[in-house]
């Protein structure tokens, strides 16, 4: 097993990509701290993974001291910490018209500042184990959609943080920092978000080729499969890197012939 006996904190893991990463990590032999805001969802994940393999921490990441308490949960339950996955994020629509100072500050606090504070809190323990950090970003970090302005700004900041700390923390502490930038992923919340925007209940069953050449968008378990590489010893001394996981190149993509819309 590729993650045998590793202890991993995974934020935002009661659903979606985080949940898929937690499931795959346990299958690969790790112990995980499941985190989120939804107690009922968290308990369901805990039952699935087994209490011998997982601990649950329900708390808003923006609360003072949450980062330290998450690290303490790992230490109290499993005695060490080998890796941190910063996955939790607020995916929220906004444009230049409705992005004000207060709103942007809230998005940044959740998506960019909270991951930094978690890295700071986990660093002493990760240094002991020669561990690492995996940030889950977004392809929107490169510029983003017009209606994802604040979210895209926050993910751009996270990507810069990964490259900065991937250099300095590895040299000074022996702690690697890398990032996955997923494209469009079929999570439970994304299904509901698109329905709330007026799409049909089965919108994801017929995605135009311009959005998904494969005819479908990416599954959370496919992001989780990539996460295992970065969390395992197989990634070696690689640090400060960002991996895009999308169906087409983010730069230099040819204009698609199919311009039909999602229904």
Automatic annotation (TrEMBL):
<keyword id="KW-0560">Oxidoreductase</keyword>
<dbReference type="InterPro" id="IPR020904">
    <property type="entry name" value="Sc_DH/Rdtase_CS"/>
</dbReference>
<dbReference type="InterPro" id="IPR036291">
    <property type="entry name" value="NAD(P)-bd_dom_sf"/>
</dbReference>
<dbReference type="InterPro" id="IPR002347">
    <property type="entry name" value="SDR_fam"/>
</dbReference>
<protein>
    <submittedName>
        <fullName>SDR family NAD(P)-dependent oxidoreductase</fullName>
        <ecNumber>1.1.1.-</ecNumber>
    </submittedName>
</protein>
<dbReference type="Pfam" id="PF13561">
    <property type="entry name" value="adh_short_C2"/>
</dbReference>
<dbReference type="GO" id="GO:0016491">
    <property type="term" value="F:oxidoreductase activity"/>
</dbReference>
């Amino acid at each position: 097993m590729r993650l045998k006996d590793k202890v991993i904190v995974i934020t935002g893991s009661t659903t979606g990509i985080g949940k898929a990463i937690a499931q795959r990590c346990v299958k690969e032999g790790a112990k995980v701290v499941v985190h989120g805001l939804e107690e009922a969802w968290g308990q369901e994940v805990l039952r699935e993974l087994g209490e011998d393999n997982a601990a649950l921490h329900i708390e808003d990441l923006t609360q003072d001291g949450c980062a330290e308490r998450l690290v303490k949960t790992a230490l109290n339950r499993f005695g060490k910490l080998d890796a941190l996955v910063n996955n939790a994020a607020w995916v929220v629509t906004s444009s230049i018209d409705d992005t004000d100072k207060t709103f942007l500050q809230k998005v940044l606090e959740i998506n960019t500042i909270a991951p930094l504070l978690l890295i700071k809190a986990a660093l002493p323990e990760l240094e002991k184990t020669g561990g690492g950090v995996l940030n889950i970003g977004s392809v929107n970090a490169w510029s983003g959609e017009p209606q994802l302005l604040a979210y895209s700004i926050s993910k751009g900041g996270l990507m810069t943080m990964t490259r900065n700390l991937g250099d300095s923390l590895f040299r000074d502490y022996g702690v690697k920092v890398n990032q996955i930038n997923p494209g469009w992923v079929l999570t439970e919340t994304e299904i509901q978000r698109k329905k709330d925007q007026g799409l049909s209940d089965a919108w994801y069953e017929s995605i135009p080729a311009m959005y998904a050449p494969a005819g479908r968008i990416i599954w959370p378990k496919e992001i989780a499969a990539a996460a295992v590489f970065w969390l395992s010893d197989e990634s070696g001394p690689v640090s400060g890197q960002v991996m895009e996981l999308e169906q087409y190149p983010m730069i230099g993509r040819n204009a698609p012939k199919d311009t039909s819309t999602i229904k």
